Amino acid sequence: MIAFAKRNLLVFFKDKSSVFFSLLAVFIIIGLYALFLGDVWVNSIESQFSNEFEIEFVGARFLMDSWIAAGLLAVTSVTTTMGAFGIMVEDKTKKIDKDFISSPIKRSSIIGGYIISAYIIGIIMSLVTLVLAEVYILLNGGELMSFLTLIRVIGLLFLSTFTNTSIVLFIVLFFTSNNAFSTASTIIGTIIGFLTGIYLPIGQLPESVQVVVKVFPPSHSAALFRQIMMADPIAASFSGLPQEAETGFKTLMGVTYNFGDTNVTPLMSILILIGTGVLFFALSIIKVSRKKK
Asked: Model's pTM, two decimal places?
């Protein structure tokens, strides 16, 4: 299993185009934010709170840079694991999987190798994204996260990647051609920014769309990343402002979610991620088992 996972890792990173397209959604989000969305949101937030409370709103750039960085981490493990599982689809298309099945390698080891390699790729690419995001924040005048915050972010990366790997695995098992897989990858890469509330803050979306965002598991990863990475920027920016101003900002930007009068706690989001990951992993195992029969 480990040797087969290593083979998949080598195949993935050897193909530079696969690596690039697995990060395409991330590049698009960074491009949109760097070119115009970032300045629009920073200016909007500064003017809104400065005018409303007649006080200078400080640290808006650091605040919004941390917000977009958190969203990127939530998205990366979705698109990169999707790209990693492209190896499995390609093996099916080229009938390479039949060679593996006819060999002494157990079928469980083959499937396990695909899963392990996809998970590792998701972790590696997420860590790369985290480093780039921190460099971007630092260059824009922000501050590097503390060691404790970094540990919490990395821990959440492992959980988030597990959940997204399970979801993507279940989806990919339905594809038997590269064309179908490529189409699905393009669609997911296009809408993932909306489903995690990155292109537009969740508070600016229609109520019906907000519900979709809140029940989408990766959105809970985004919310948890925001709560961790934006804790210090929020404390600095909203110092001296009423608590309702901070609460309204968190609701608007998807830092916290509400279902009616019920607030979604961090523990609830973590349980949703764990439950979703276990559920889709189990469904994937069932599908693979049925196909074997």
From this structure: 0.91
